[in-house]
User: Fold this.
Amino acid sequence: LLAIETNITSDRPQTMRTTATANSKLIHNFGGNVTLSPQHHEVACSEADVLEILERHRGQRLRAYGSLHAWSQVAKCDDVAVNVSQLNRVQLRIDSASPTATVGAGCQIKHLLAELDAKGWTTPTLGLITEQTISGAMATATHGSGRHCLSHYICSLRLATYDADGKPVVRVISGGDELRAACCSLGTMGIITEVTIPIRRQYLVEEHFREFNELENVIAAEKDYPIQQFFLVPWKWNYLVQHRRETQVSRSWHAPLYRVFWAWGMDRGLHWWIIALARCLPNWVTPFSFRRVLPHLVPRGWRVADRSDRQLTMQHHLYRHIETELFVRKSQLAEMLELTRWLLQWSAGSGQRGCDAWTDAIVQCEMASEFEKLRGSYHHHYPICIRKVKADTGFVTMSGSDDDEAWYAVSFISYASPDKRSGFFQFSSAITHLSIRLFSARPHWGKHYPSSVRFKDLYPHFDEFMEVRNRTDPTDAFLPAWMQSL
Assistant:
């Protein structure tokens, strides 16, 4: 086989900060809401280094981390934190009927995309953000729009763990229940050193915006635009849709201008405006701006064809924020968005009490007092992003299912300062618990969610996942406290 190997030289990820203390290093995530305080901090530059680290720390708990571009407690570690960001080699195998890329666990997706594009290739799906490492994105089932999550496409992976005698070993997982568990393992089966994924020829995506008043018309457009994503605009309560589909036409001559518009008009200018509203004048300027200003900032009908990784990604990492994301089935999306609108209005102090089903859910969740405190405490200030994700067979992927019904990821983002997020946390807790109770919604593993969520109740194959996990990690070296509590 022809193997094209590329070693990527990467500096410390921009989303990671380390602070030396008397006994350890404090490690902060991108969102500023999670701090790791391990007793020991290790850096692995090769698979052999990982095995040596495992040997040196027998009997302790270990967690791997990369760019820390997540908001959940998944990477939380008190014993041994292992930085795998230097495991970043990319190896392409392109002379077979099924081309693949074998990627070091710490390789950031943006570097992988650059290496693939240089040879005319790309990944089978793309998430909105490319700051994550390939293993971090896989371990939390990161997704794009209109296709499966990244975990679904994993061909095989190499996993450093312990055997039953406590000896460090490397396991190769390439199929069956082991892969269904390992494709989204949350770092609880061992330290991934590399993954192999299928790749495809680089392609172009055509995109343009349209505005809709009804959700059913947005969903109907998926027939012609299968990889579209759309936004529920708060306070105006209509939908802005990014119609997207693969195309065989040539790259648009005005695509460079479109890129400049996105880089400075949307990724920067729009976010400067939103951040100013969120931090200075949220209560009354935000609703007015979303009703009267935002509709004029987004161009309708500007059709542009450009390279896939340019069209399907954004630069949300430019500004610190926090995010909660919930997955619901297609058949429940309309009700979920009705609940969203009602709860956001209630949070802002302008809504009335909802329907009996929602009131009953509040009582069943034992949230009556929290619900009353939420009224008037939070004004949402960012469009709610909604993306379709095809069902897959992962044991604990958010879109894992025994049928083919699609899931929709509904994302809530706040740009409030880290010390002024109490309102968002209250809203996040309410929307998460109510959506779980009413729709069996699944919080994204990599986003912020309340610590009281019982994930075992949401995944029919959770016990099977744990059986494989326990067999792969017989010494429980990689079982975090938050999962033990389940």
Notes: Residues 1-23 have pLDDT under 50 and may be disordered.
